[in-house]
Amino acid sequence: MSRDASLSDLACVLERVRATASKKEKVSLLASYLKGLEPKDAEFATRLSVGRSSERGSADEARVGYSTLVEVILDLTGRGQSQLSAAYLEQGDLGEVAQEFLSEKRAQPLFEARLSLDDVKSAFETLRSAKGKGSLELRKKVVESLFLRSSPVEAKYIVKALTGEMRTGVVDGLLEEAIAAAYSVPKDLSARAHMAIGDIGSMARAAASGELASVRLRPFHPVNFMLAEPLPTAEEVAAHFSGKAYAEYKYDGVRAQVHRLDGLVRIFSRRLEDITSSFPEVEGMFRSDGRDFILDGEIVPFAEGRPLPFQLLQRRLRRQRSFEQAAQKAPVMYFAFDALLLGEDELVDEPLGKRRDALTEVIGGSGAALAHSDLVGSSEEVAESFRRSRDLGFEGLVVKDPESRYSMGRRGSGWVKLKEELDTIDAVIVAAEYGNGKRAGVISDYTFAVLDGGELRTIGKAYSGLTDAEIGEMTKRLKESTVKNQRYRMVVRPEIVIEVAFDSIQRSDRHDSGYALRFPRIKRIRTDKAVSDIDTMEKVERIFSSQKLKVE
Ligand code: AMP
Predict the structure, then answer these.
(1) 310-319 contacts: CB < 8 A, separation 24 or more?
(2) Nearest-angstrom CA–CA distance, 500 and 496
(3) Which of 310-319, 368-377, 542-551 has the weakest average pLDDT?
(4) How many C-beta neighbours within 10 Å does residue 170 have?
(5) CATH ID of 424-546, from 1.10.287.3510, 3.40.640.10, 3.40.50.2300, 2.40.50.140
(6) What architecture (CATH level 2) is domain 227-419?
(7) Which residues lie with the beta carbon below 6 Å from any ligand 1 atom?
(8) Candidates 160, 250, 400, 461; catalytic one
(9) For the chain, which terminus, N or C, has the lower number of CB atoms within 10 Å?
């Protein structure tokens, strides 16, 4: 009888992959591991390696919250919360903490109790479907029984998978190469199949069963979106294209792939999550008999011919249940700009012009809108189209080569985007937190504030933009200026001034300024500025009201 694939073999491979810096070696370790697996195990093992338990695009993932995992770890080890918090602060990874805590005071699991990948899969399925009353207890029991049957290192990977925070350096691209190597698939075929399947687990399964060559786009299986390259000016956009190009308005909403199969509709987000239930009216626009398709576009909060603030959409994505009310407060429109599949015809390798024709056919009579597109050549034409887009309340342009293919998951040079750079804000850091993962042990999250008369008002929290050396320097300075330690957070003397870039300003009750910067990133540390030089609420309000997309 052949032995079932075990979790311990997978954990062992992942430990080795993590330990080597050589990409080649990572690929070869994964490839030789995959080679020995049945197709079904190759599917689950590859998914688990990237912290997923189900196919991309399925509505549920097996996830367990930190507090539940912590409770189970504490129950099993008899240790205290404060010890665990201290260990977490130091390690920045709950999986590592689980491994450390569970390796003490506990015998190794019995041989008979060895966990197979199938065992883990069925436990994860229970977790995925556990909902409603009593589900918390059930989840705890399932996690506990997994821990009781696993070695500390296996428990670590269970925690990592359940939190979705693997931090092993195994990403889809690496697995794509490993699959190609394991099953001797030519690289271009594996790349193409991966794009078409979207899900690395399904790809591993198809490769292990020798079916990769026949993989095609299928409705209800989302694929990675094509992305656009940013360019700073209309002149550069015009120079980028040799002939005429389509300048489409850049809609600020949620990127959405709409799939229709046998009259039924599903909608997938940029992260390939099923978001159909958040947008029943978009589903309704396309729910009818007719040819199957896959469309690409943007769901935009929109009423009376104008876009509404993006923030309304976020609320809608969060509050999935009260659709009626949400739909009233935040009506949306689907602006479609591409067609990847229509009926039996895979369109991704066709030129954009032809894909637009197919798109026009699908959109006709649906109630959805076709993205606005101007044919442009000169920089003046680009600039004019850009101004029109801004005047109508849109974000700018995405300019596209009419001959370009749809490069799934790539930032192809066929699409470029032009946005208006907003002003930056000079602010002072008033509180900070330790980071986690790669940033464990350093203070890398900064809450910052602007001046309101003589008071400081917080307006955002930034994690990105600084180099490791700068973060090291910040850690030192912030430790010195800490005035109060709260659990994970320290309040600091307002001394360090940073210049923050951002995408827009929105109203927010999270910060006491009443506003929040959207996508803040630190442009530089302004050692040349004192707190008295930072920006004020007046400036924030000025930028806010000059934005086309006003809140409320
Ligand atoms: P950004 O989010 O600034 O990196 O800009 C890229 C995003 O713009 C894409 O991922 C889409 O979600 C969005 N977008 C809006 N309008 C279009 C369009 N006409 N064509 C392509 N992408 C668009």
Answers:
(1) 310/252, 310/253, 310/504, 310/506, 310/518, 310/549, 311/506, 311/507, 311/551, 313/253, 313/254, 316/278, 316/279, 317/254, 317/275, 317/278
(2) 12
(3) 542-551
(4) 23
(5) 2.40.50.140
(6) 2-Layer Sandwich (3.30)
(7) 227-228, 248, 250-251, 255, 298, 337, 371, 398, 417, 419
(8) 250
(9) N
